[in-house]
Design brief:
- By secondary structure, this protein is an all-alpha fold.
- The chain has 23 helices and no strands.
- The protein has helices spanning about 1-20, 35-55, 55-60, 65-85, 85-120, 125-135, 140-155, 160-175, 175-195, 205-210, 225-240, 260-280, 285-320, 325-330, 340-345, 350-365, 370-380, 385-395, 400-410, 415-425, 435-445, 450-455, 460-475.
- Helix 4 (about 65-85) runs antiparallel to helix 5.
Length: about 475
């Protein structure tokens, strides 16, 4: 296992040497790739990523090592450039890198806030309860949770969707290890595939959209390849699912959504539309539309707080009239909706990890490492083969730094190849349980049921779906591939 981790670390180092957001494609005036400072910086990044890979074993959040590594790398850059009397150059490079991160971070923060608001209003609990109470067979549940993961993840992101669907399976299966493992694998594949054809489905697709490489409507060209990526492994796994019905489904609780739940879902869709309009029609960063959407939610939160007393009185009167004691107890526990509480519950470890990765890669790019070998991968190699490799690497590393590195290099590729790398980075992580945020999260949620080796047994079938999705994309979107 230790050898495996060092191998992964080595692959990570190689990747970042090979690759490079458009804003950070420029190399600093001083080439530090052959210097001791450059070697130290690269070693710091590799060491930080060893800690990231070992997160599950050492129980240290992944943001900690990359934050320290980012600070030390840029500290080394600053020291060199101050010594050479070129402090302004390194300062401007750092600010430019930080601006790129800030736009993405604020975008993600608003999306996470809306997801947390919907969770607080019990939107996801109601969906889970409905699925359980319907009493579907195991085989039906396998397909339903898979397709729901595929459909919901383009809007609610693959991580949130996977956790929701896994909760349904864990509730229904009640300790059936084999079924839970198969369903969890299917959910991870479906959530990653669904997230690949939407800017909101994964951080990597958001990065591609924010960089302006692929327009909003152009992501949907990946819909059919994404379906193929999900359906092929699901078909083979489905053959090993028992077609029996859970006997306890009727005991599930009937969950009632809280006041304003549906309107918050509508506001989230309006926020997405605002972000798309800002980017597509006004040519402004999508983050402006998302921050405007946060304002929508704040105004609605104000409305919910101001009208809460009147709403409670009306519901209390109805509960007294019906003699519904349970409803009266629920009304007694109602608290006002607070947007800032939802912001506080955002996944800050993910956001800070994202900052650390962006700043580390930006620093290594400024030193010259990204440009050093990028020509090998996207000039000497065929870009299509290089993009296939990106998907494989994302399974053993993490698709966020992989995609950020590709964007940082900003290679000259056809539009079809940009769509291809978006697809492969999104779905490649499905080949291993550690290859995506959805897989890692489900290993924690379904601990003992969904495992690394349980997923690994199905890797050949998942890889078949991965390869098929690539060929389907190349076939369907052949016109978008051009030779430079």
């Amino acid at each position: 296992m230790l050898r495996t981790r060092w191998l992964l670390a080595g692959l990570t180092a190689t990747l970042f040497m090979l690759l490079g957001t458009p804003a950070m494609a420029a190399v600093g005036e001083i080439n530090l790739t052959d210097s001791a400072v450059g070697g130290i910086a690269l070693s710091l990044f590799v060491l930080a990523y060893v800690f990231v890979i070992a997160e599950e074993k050492i129980h240290m959040r992944k943001s900690k090592p990359v934050l320290v590594a980012a600070g030390l790398i840029w500290g080394l850059i600053g020291w060199v450039y101050v010594t050479e009397g070129m402090a302004t150059s390194s300062e401007n490079a750092f600010r430019h890198t930080l601006l790129e991160f800030s736009e993405l971070m604020l975008f993600l923060l608003v999306a996470m806030t809306y997801i947390n608001a919907m969770e607080e209003r019990r939107v996801f609990d109601a969906l889970r309860s409905w699925l359980i109470r319907k009493g579907f067979s195991y085989r039906s549940l396998f397909w339903i949770t898979g397709w729901l993961a595929f459909v919901i993840s383009p809007v609610a992101d693959n991580l949130t969707t996977a956790l929701l669907m896994c909760a349904v399976v864990m509730k229904v299966a009640e300790g059936d290890k084999r079924f839970i493992n198969l369903c969890a694998i299917n959910i991870v594949i479906a959530a990653n595939a669904g997230g690949a054809f939407s800017p909101f489905g994964d951080i990597t697709t958001l990065m591609v959209w924010q960089a302006g490489v692929v327009k909003f409507q152009e992501f949907f060209a990946l819909f059919i390849p994404a379906v193929v990526n999900f359906v092929i492994p699901a078909f083979f796994m489905n053959l090993f699912v028992e077609n029996r019905t859970p006997v306890h489904a009727d005991d599930a609780e009937n969950v009632e959504m809280k006041r304003g739940a549906r309107r918050i879902v509508a506001l989230f869709l309006l926020t997405i539309a605002t972000a798309v309009a800002c980017h597509s029609f006004l040519h402004l960063p999508p983050v402006m539309g998302m921050m405007t959407g946060l304002g929508y939610l704040q105004f609605f939160g104000y409305f919910l707080r101001m009208t809460l007393p009147r709403s409670l009185e009306r519901k209390r009167a109805l509960a007294l009239q019906r003699g519904d004691e349970a409803a009266l107890q629920r009304l007694g526990s109602v608290v006002p909706f607070d947007v800032f509480n939802r912001i506080a519950r955002s996944e800050w470890d993910t956001l800070l990890f994202f900052y650390g990765v962006v700043m580390c890669v930006g620093g290594l790019g400024f030193m010259g490492y990204l440009a050093m070998v990028s020509e090998v991968m996207y000039t000497q190699w065929n870009p299509t083969y290089a993009n296939m490799l990106v998907g494989v690497l994302s399974a053993v590393v993490d698709n966020i730094p992989v995609m950020f590195a590709v964007l940082s290099m900003s290679p000259e590729m056809s539009h079809g190849d940009w769509l291809l790398v978006t697809l492969t980075a999104g779905v490649g992580g499905s080949m291993l349980s550690i290859g995506s945020a959805a897989g890692v999260a489900l290993m924690g949620q379904a601990r003992g049921y969904y495992t690394f080796f349980g997923h690994l047994k199905w890797t050949p079938v998942i890889a078949l779906g991965y390869i098929a999705s690539i060929y389907v994309h190349i076939w369907l979107n052949a016109d978008s591939f051009q030779v430079f």
